[in-house]
Amino acid sequence: MHAESIRSLAARLAKRELSSVELTRAHLARIARFNASLNAFITVDAEKSLAMARAADDRIAGGAAGPLTGIPIAHKDLFCAKGWPTTCGSKMLANYVSPYDAHVLERFGRAGAVLLGKTNMDEFAMGSSNENSFFGAVKNPWDERAVPGGSSGGSAAAVAARLAPAATGTDTGGSIRQPASFTGVCGLRPTYGRVSRYGMVAFASSLDQGGVVARSAEDLALLLGVMAGFDERDSTSIDRPVDDYVAALARGAKGLRIGLPREYFGAELAADVAKPILAAIDELKKLGATTVEVSLPNQHLSVPVYYVVASAEASANLSRYDGVRYGHRAEGYRDLTEMYCRTRAEGFGAEVKRRILIGTYVLSHGYYDAYYLQAQRVRRLIARDFSDAFKRCDLIAGPAAPSVAFDLGAKTADPVQMYLQDIYTIPINLAGLPGLAIPCGFGDRGRPVGLQIVGNYFDETRMLAAAHAYQQVTDWHTRVPPGFE
Amino acid sequence: MLSPEEVRRIARLARIELADHEIEHLRGELNAILALVDEMQAVDTNGIEPMAHPQDARQRLREDVVTDRDQRALYQSVAPATEDGLYLVPKVIE
């Protein structure tokens, strides 16, 4: 049953051919078997999950089942879940048990989903390899020498290894799409404002967006329908009706104009990635789509702009970790300032410190205009490139990452090299657009390649319909890493 | 290029304690990141409005009324040190 789609599992649960307790047990058993090597989960609590599964079975028996009732779903460990540890991959929150549920958790709870566990991640979602976790690196199920990508690396590895039918993630600069691409699964980052950030531990608030990793576009559509919606507790949540993403899948790819940004096929793109991406685009053409070359001339400025904007926002957001209200507090200190400084020195890892320091610098007196304001201005130029491109096309397609998954340790010594992993995903976050990644083949050493599809604001339906059409005529999304069948 | 003194100053502003032996390595990393960032400095942005929100949405306002119930005990249950409903910190004023 670990190979079935959520759609099919939900149908079997509804017909009572399968119970949620059986389904949850089966996944817990796989986690018990494989997590020691993958390290995809930070917290598993079988008793709590099985209690939720029993409640789901009662609900099904009572005829009150929702679309996800009884389906076990894992959550990235930055979604607050009441009564569960919510560590954000950090020593700072290693002992934090959330007193409340994130909006996303409330919605999954109402839909009847079972919380299967909390997945590993780069500390405070800062990273592209999942090597920045206080709880250790996550391995890529396709090749345990490789990283799974990040920061939602635990979620992606869990879904790829069939330890969970789906897992939530967050995407601030590519943190859903890049790990999805590296592990051969499907990952969706919705439009900024579509999914509430309430109860999601904040990193960079103008870029953060919750989303999901699953095994097919159809499952992504089903899950987005549950997650999306207005929430007054998130000041940037958009009050706008939620589309019927599942119904819209039937629209297919016929007639869609797909823009291919020439900047996405330049010298940075590895040849073993380019080949399956171009083949996937040909497949979309066979399905009735047309292609048009577009240009995003300011795309090369995205990584510099991102490291100003995201670091600035992170330095402000992470100022809340002061050892007073929650989280780690240092042992020895002489006064309040020393308590803050020592608490933060001990509680944060190296990458988080780097970003807080950069953010503090670019916001400091005398540098604000030159860095932060300039970055916000260039951000608008980058967003305009997309609105110009979308005058000529319905969707944009290209690679999600410049290479296949790299080896563990290969880029940890050089933060800048690590940042350049995100050249194809960051522009989408800066513009606030929705994007998804779906598997479309394999590159060197049998490591997966993901096709990125970007839509205009709130146009998740067309992205998902195109991805679904592609998955009707290809089987990359059904491939299971060897050893995890 | 940040000097060692500037790195110390930023760390003080950020309330992160740094040991002397950490400064030089960190300085190299921060300068490499700032060198990457510098690429955007040459761009002519005259007349371009800074973009703070992807859809340029305005902040919503709500009525200034109580919308949450008192959950102090629950929220303080995760604090490092509390007493009588108050958070404990080292003495600030002698």
What can you tell me about this protein's structure?
With 485 residues, chain A is an alpha/beta fold. Chain A has one domain: Amidase signature (AS) enzymes, CATH 3.90.1300.10. In chain A, 39% of the residues lie in helices and 12% in strands. Chain A is built from 16 helices and 11 strands. Chain A has helices at 6-14, 20-38, 46-61, 103-110, 153-160, 177-183, 217-227, 245-248, 271-286, 302-317, 336-347, 350-363, 368-389, 415-419, 426-431, 460-473, and strands at residues 41-43, 72-76, 114-119, 167-170, 186-189, 210-214, 257-261, 290-294, 395-399, 435-442, 448-455. An 8-stranded mixed β-sheet of chain A has the order 4-6-5-10-11-9-7-8, sandwiched between helices. In chain A, strands 1-3-2 form a 3-stranded mixed β-sheet. In chain A, helix 9 links the parallel strand 7 and strand 8 (290-294). Chain B is mainly alpha-helical and 94 residues long. Chain B has a domain at 1-41: Histone, subunit A (Orthogonal Bundle). Chain B contains 3 helices and 2 strands, in the order αααββ. Chain B has helices at 4-13, 20-37, 72-76, and strands at residues 82-83, 86-87. In chain B, strands 1-2 form a two-stranded antiparallel sheet. The two termini of chain B are 40 Å apart. At the A-B interface, helix 10, helix 11, helix 12, helix 13 and helix 14 of A face helix 1 and helix 2 of B.
Model regions low in confidence, pLDDT < 50 over at least 5 residues of chain B: none
Give the helices and strands of chain A as they follow along the chain: HHEHEHEHEHEEHHEHEHHHHEHHEEH
Overall, the morphology of chain A is globular
Q: Return residue spans of chain A where pLDDT drops below 50 for at least 5 consecutive residues.
A: none
